[in-house]
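hi! just following up on the protien thing from before. the input was this:
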Amino acid sequence: MAIRSHVDISDDRLLAVEALLELRKEMRNWIDIQLVAFPQNGYLRYKNSIENLDRALKKGVDVVGGIPHFERTMNEGSLSVKLLCEVAAKHGLLVDMHCDETDDPMSRHVETLALESQRLGLQGRVTGSHLTSMHSMDNYYVSKLIPLLREADLQVVANPLINITIQGRHDFYPKRRGMTRVKELLENNINVAFGHDCVMDPWYSLGKHDMLDAANMALHVGQMTSMKQMQQMFQAITSNGAKVMQLDNYGIEVGCNANLVVHQANNPIEAIRLRNARLFVIRNGQVIAKANPIQSELLLDAKKVTSVIDWTL
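and the predicted 3d structure came back as:
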């Protein structure tokens, strides 16, 4: 019931911004939508991005975005991170950057993002999305980088479905998987959440906006199959994402918002394994969506056996 969506501000008309702001208002009783001002064509690379981003923020976009690895040079990429973090600090906004979404191990803008977070007092308010270059980085450098991210309280969003689809395309064999080092980041107490990134667009046309799909893919790609790690995969699409978005009153306890999803599953691991039916979606104490339980029938020796999965989650 909460979505963070990046909206391109490279169109000088800001049509997408206007449309999603209208949608956010229309859907506010059913879902919380955070919008990220995203300069798809580069903050410095496209001549009108600086002005367009400022216009988008004035219209009510919530979060400052960026794409430093798409700038003309590494220096301009680093400069864009600095300038965009300064914009966020000035307006008291969160930051969520497409950062180092590449197989190039020398794309290291995330270290600048972490440094600027600390310099400007934005710890905990800045997210690095994708970070796929970490998959290809030298292990010694990563051993230095991860403590820097932890010191900056940098939030991380991996997008397993699109990361595994786009990354490694220049490789023959062996092919890199591309997803950032989720396991190692979690082991170092860095908050990692999962996104879908693309649902149905030119980059990925097979999505259905099911976060259990993202958790299932991450579990396999990251080889995170211990009981603890599989539990962490569920947290990455629930409480960890809520922390990234800084949602108020999130959780199932007294004083929280009465927002919850009832799964046809006995536990989080079963939910990820089965990618089960969502029996009820409850918003502010009201059921706003429901589905029938998935039921199977076996016809053996002319006898019909009906099975419905028990659900308690």
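The longest helix spans residues 74-91.
The chain has two domains: 2-245, 260-308.
cheers
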